[in-house]
C-alpha cells in the first residue's frame, strides 16, 4: 500500500498542534484542504486515525501512522541537510514524553543544542512517558528507572536528587525542635498532585511511621519552589531547583538524610535511532553535566 506523504504530513500536523486550524496555518493550507487530506488518508488506510476533539487525539491506528510520519519527516530533513539543499522554513517535529521536573530543570539545556528540530513535548509523569512510547505516540521519552520499553534503545542518564527544603521562617516555626514525627505530621507540605509520593516517602523514611501531613496541591514544578520559598510548606525539590534558592538564603534544607534519587533513562525508538542521534547526543551531554552521576 502506498501512502501519500502529503496526507501523512497533514495528519502529523494535526496531531502535533492539536487542532485542524493550527495545522492548516502551519502547512499554509485552508482548513478544508487539510481536512480533505486527512480524510483521504483515513479512506486509504480504512480506519479513523484521530478524534475530532479539542485537542485532537490519535486512535490506535493513528498512533502508528503518526510515529511513521515523524520518522519520515525527520529522515527527509536529515537527507536535505546532508545534501546541503535548501529546506526553506520547514523543520521536523519530534514528539518527546517528559516529566514536569525534567522540563523545569535540565532538558531544555539539551533541546537548545538541536536548533533544526521542532519539539512536541508531552509533559506528564514518568509512567505516562513509558506508555506513550509503547503506544507509538512519541519517538523518545525520559523515563524513570531502567525498565526498557520494547523496541527502544535505552541510555541511563543519571539521577535527579530530591532535597527536603522549606523557607528559613517555616523551619523555625515547625522544625526548630527537630524533624520529629509530630512535626512532620503537623507541618504543611507541598505536593504536585495526588500521585506524587515524594513528601510522604521522605517523612516515613525519616520517622519510620506512617504519616499523612496536611498538603497543598500545586501542579507546577517551579511553582512548588516559589511556594516553598514563600513559606507555604516544605517540599522535596529537585536539586537543580533547590540549590539556587538555597544559595540565596530563600530555602534551607531540613535534613541531610533520606534524600531521594530518581534515576532517569533516555529511551528512543529503534526505528528512529539514526535520525535521532543528534538529539540523543545532546540529551546525554546535558545529563552528564547536570544530573547526579554517583548516588
Outline the fold blueprint.
Elements (H helix, E strand, L loop, with lengths): L4 H13 L2 H8 L3 H15 L4 E2 L5 E2 L1 H23 L9 E7 L1 H6 L1 H5 L5 E7 L2 H10 L4 E5 L7 E15 L1 H8 L5 H6 L2 E3 L6 H10 L7 E3 L3 H9 L5 E4 H9 L4 E2 L6 E10 L7 H14 L5
Parallel strand pairs: 3-4, 3-5, 7-8
Antiparallel strand pairs: 1-2, 5-11, 6-9, 6-10, 6-11
Helix pairs in contact: 1-2, 1-3, 1-4, 2-3
Give your account of this protein's structure:
The protein contains 13 helices and eleven strands. With 295 residues, the chain is an alpha/beta fold. Strands 3, 4, 5, 6, 9, 10 and 11 form a seven-stranded mixed beta sheet that branches. The protein has a two-stranded antiparallel ribbon with strand order 1-2. The longest helix is centred in the N-terminal third of the chain and has 23 residues.
Output the CATH class name of the domain at 160-261. Alpha Beta
Helical percent range?
40-55%
Low-confidence stretches: none
State the helix count: 13
| CATH architectural arrangement of the domain at 160-261 | 3-Layer(aba) Sandwich
The N- and C-terminal alpha carbons lie at a distance of 51 Å
Main structural class = alpha/beta
Give helix and strand order, one letter per element, not per position: HHHEEHEHHEHEEHHEHEHEHEEH
Strand content: 15-25%
Shape label: elongated
- Oligomeric state: single chain
CATH superfamily of the domain at 160-261, by name, is Periplasmic binding protein-like II
CATH topology of the domain at 160-261: D-Maltodextrin-Binding Protein, domain 2
